[in-house]
Amino acid sequence: MTSEYSTTSGMGEPHEYIGEEGDKTTESPPISDKEGEAQGIPCAKEPEPDGLDFIDPVEINDGSGADCELHVYESRYDTRGENVVLRVGVKHEFEAPKDRSHAAALVLTRFYSEDKELYSTRLEVRSPYLRKALREVIKSYPGIDFDPANNVWIHEDDASCLFHYREELKVYAESSGDEEMRRHLHMLLQYVKRRFHEEIKRYDATVAKRQASAGSEFKYLWMAYKPGDLLYQKSGEIDTLATLESLTFEEGDLFDDEDEYRGIPRWEMRVKRVQRNGTHLGYVYDKIILKKYEGFAAFSTLDIFPLHFHSESQQIKTRLLARGKKYMSLADIHHCQYNGTAKLSQLINRPTTVKDELIRTRVRQRIMVDFEEFYQNAKGPQPDFQTPGDILGSTSSDIRLEDTDFLICHHEVTGYTLITKRWGFFDVELVHPVNFNEEAFQNLVLEEDKKQLISSLILSRNLEVFSSDDFIEGKGKGVIILLHGPPGVGKTFTAEAMADHARRPLLTANSGQFVGPPPYVESILSRLLHLAERWQALLLLDEADVFMQARNLSDLERNGLVSMLLRILEYFEGTLFLTTNRVGTIDSAFMSRIHLALSYSPLTKEAKQHLWDVWIARACGGERPAWAADKLLKALASFDVSGRDIKNIALLAQAVAKSGQRGMAADDIWKGVTAMTQFQEDFKKSVPDEGLGRNIDGKELTVNQTPSISWAAKAMNHWWYRS
């Protein structure tokens, strides 16, 4: 019985050859050594280890690659040192190089060195059937061009593509309704079976038949790492996926450019992920190294391995698909809440991608996600799209991703912490929408008409559409609100509550951040104003006295700061809150820049009673406890403490109760009051009654008189406390 497929040498009578499966093929007799040497041309001798032999041809037509046969050539050096290419089994080369085996479906060429050692092979696929099948099944593979207009060349280093796709090609052949397609594919698969005979047996034994504990020896890893497959890698505690682009073995000689791997055999993987660089989304590439190990290793023990060998591969795909879609949804500017570990820059207001300048930090605050602002100002390397084809799009609206692209999206977004003012990288899965405190504005202790006034001013100013109120283009588009009054009466809280009420971010700064020469101070302030405009955030400049104090002839440096702020505010297009407790010292030039000025008086007893009620309830989980009766609240309101003091005392009482693993009690509040009044009494004794500025009426502000600690101690025994 002869094989269904055959090739011919073109010379001599064929003889039977028994294949690996016991099937007979026909093979031309080898040319004798003497015959070849007489003409100075090397000849083929014994069949090569790839198991390829000649089989009788099956003629289809005269077109290129139409004959279902494989021709084998050898490129050798003759006795004169000249390179010649000879078809195996043929004495002479009668065809011009471009016409060699024009009609053969497959042409295999073996390349030998001058020392007569085989060092490479090349398979040329000429069959239009096989080219079509390879193009539709494999689609793309590193190092191989599947252009339908050209033949497919598969070099020795790329022959693994036939090993990786042998099962898919088999399925394609079985499902094809074209008889000639099936014949050509069966011949190709016969070649693959003989070419990779030992590898297939090893793969079946170590991988295919032991999925739960599949693994490999180091040198055979290529069999399981198929270009195009998803690779799983753990980055710290975070699951990540990447698409394998190519796999290359490096011997690891002593002259490697990379000192870390000098002399170490290794597999180098080129993988791709989807990432933003600020303006575009696209594929970025990375190199991952697997160093040599001894013996057999399960894939799950390696640093990176194909996802389908993971015991929870489906759960990982489901979760990372959702994460990728979330990453895409955060493409523009977003105000978010974050609770978890992030990699933050060590420098305030300075983004960086340099690993040594990033610190893993616990973050529990609101952040601004902004890729473009981060990468425009970041120090260090940035995501690089190597070719225009790697760019997927510029905006979320013009990008349509496949599920495989969502799976390999980067696991971090870039952003800015609004409280600690640090740029950094944030885990996508820990970024959540902001839960705005709707009650904050309601609990603000401020006259209702003032609350209505400030609310209307901010909510009606849509930064996208309102026009300038100045004759000069670009001037007068901002809103500046001055809040003045003694400490602890709610100035800062007004800005915080208003930000949540308007559902906008809040950027804060105080005079302590502006220490340095004027150019440095101006750059920091300009940067904050820019971010406030970009993010449509409310900007709070707390304790702004250093920028607002009236200019005089004796302090030129301070005069420069005041003039700088006045100049910058002319072209500011956002909303700015300025707070001060020294309104009487403000430079008169600010009066024309301020759109609204609100005066805050010392808290009345009714206001303090309300604040005690609110903060005790918050410290107790949201509801006022039974012991916090009106009598107790009225007693607490009689103490001359600020709103900030009330908040601190309530939080202190909460901490004391938690440390004792019990609910908060009235005694905890009184302990806080006692400590606070003791501090105020000590402060009053050590600090003279100095002027603290003037209020809106021009009256001098002084240190307030407070109840003594002995009075507070007596109050703890009073009947309304015990009741």
From TrEMBL:
Residues 13-37 have a biased composition (Basic and acidic residues). Signal peptide: none annotated. This is ATPase family AAA domain-containing protein 3B. The gene is ATAD3B-3. Residues 477-602 form the AAA+ ATPase domain. One of its GO terms (molecular function) is ATP binding. Transmembrane segments: none annotated. Residues 1-10 have a biased composition (Polar residues). It comes from the Eukaryota. It comes from Colletotrichum siamense. Residues 1-56 are annotated as: Disordered.
